[in-house]
Amino acid sequence: MASDAHQKTPVFQTTGLTKTYHQGEVDVHALRGVDLALYPGELVVMLGASGSGKSTLLNILGGLDIPSSGQVRYQDIELSGASDRDLTRYRRDYVGFVFQFYNLIPSLTARENVIAVTEIARDPMAPEDALDMVGLASRMDHFPAQLSGGEQQRVAIARAISKRPQVLLCDEPTGALDSATGILVLVALERANRETGTTTVIITHNASIARMADRVITLSDGVISGEHRNAVRQNPRTLSW
Ligand SMILES: Nc1ncnc2c1ncn2[C@@H]1O[C@H](COP(=O)(O)OP(=O)(O)OP(=O)(O)O)[C@@H](O)[C@H]1O
Predict the structure, then answer these.
(1) 37, 62, 131, 141 - which has most CB atoms within 10 Å?
(2) Cα of 12 vs its chain's centroid, Å
(3) Beta strands 223-229 and 95-98: pairing type?
(4) Contact 174, 208 (CB under 8 A)
C-alpha cells in the first residue's frame, strides 16, 4: 500500500479502549486501554498470546461487542455507546467477518451461500466474481460437505467480500487448517485486500503470517505491546510454517 498511509484519515480510531468481563466475583480485564488507528486499505496482522485480547478487540471493531470504556470510531460513526440497532446496521453496511470455523449453510451450494449475502446487500459483487476471486470458480455448485476445509474457508471469504465491505475482520482464519491449505486462504485474503481495497485485519497465533502484512500489531495482556511496519508485503504463497 502507499507509504503515505499515515497521512490519511484513519478508518478506525480507538482511544483508551477497555473491556472488562464480569464472571461471578471475578473481573477479567480483556482490554486495558487500547489506542489504535487503522488506515484505509491496509492489511494488518494482529498477533498475541492466547487471552491477550485479540478477539475482544476485533469484536468491538466489528460492532459485535461494545467496550466498557473508551472510544471506538469507524469513520464518523461512534461505535462506543451505539444502540444494538445501529450496530446491526453498521455491521450489515460496512463489515465482512471471517472466523476460524466457516459457518456455511450445509444445505446450500457455495454459490447459494454467497447469494444469501448478496441478495440483501446494497451494492454486491456478482456471487460468481466473489468465488472466482478466491479461486473457486470451478467449485461453485458444490455443497460444503463436498469441499475441503480450506475450500470451505474460501467460500466463507467469498461470502464476506461479496457485499464489498469497507472492512474485513478475520479471526484465526487459518486456525483449523494445515499449512498448505492455510496459505491458499491467505492468498485469497491478500487478493481481496489488494483488489477491493477493503481494510483488512487478520488475527493469528502464527508469527510467520505477519510477513504478508503492511503492519503488525502485537497485543499482550490487553494492551498494544508492539507495532511495526513491513518494508514489503511478502507474497503469502512464499510463506511457510
Ligand atoms: N464473554 C466473555 N466472558 C468472560 N471472559 C471473556 C469473554 N470473552 C473473553 N473473555 C476473556 O477475556 C480475555 C481476552 O480474551 P480474547 O478472546 O479476546 O483473547 P484472544 O487473544 O483472542 O485469545 P485466543 O488467541 O485464545 O483466542 C481472556 O482472559 C478471556 O478468557
Answers:
(1) 131
(2) 13
(3) unpaired
(4) no
- 103 conformational bin, left if phi > 0, alpha if psi -120 to 50, beta if neither: left
Domain containing residue 12: CATH number: 3.40.50.300
pLDDT digits (tens, 9 = 90+) for 186-200: 999 999 999 999 999
CA of 50 to the centre of ligand 1 (A): 8
| pTM metric for this prediction | 0.94
C-alpha cell at 19: 473491556
Ligand 1 atom nearest the C-alpha of 222 is: 14
ipTM surpasses cut 0.90: yes
Ligand 1 atom 30 nearest Cα? 51
Residue-averaged pLDDT of the chain: 94
Distance 52 CA to ligand 1 centre (A): 7
Find the domain containing 196 and state its range. 5-238
**Ligand 1 pocket list (CB less than 6 A):** 21, 23, 28, 30, 48, 50-56
Q: How many structural domains is the chain composed of?
A: 1
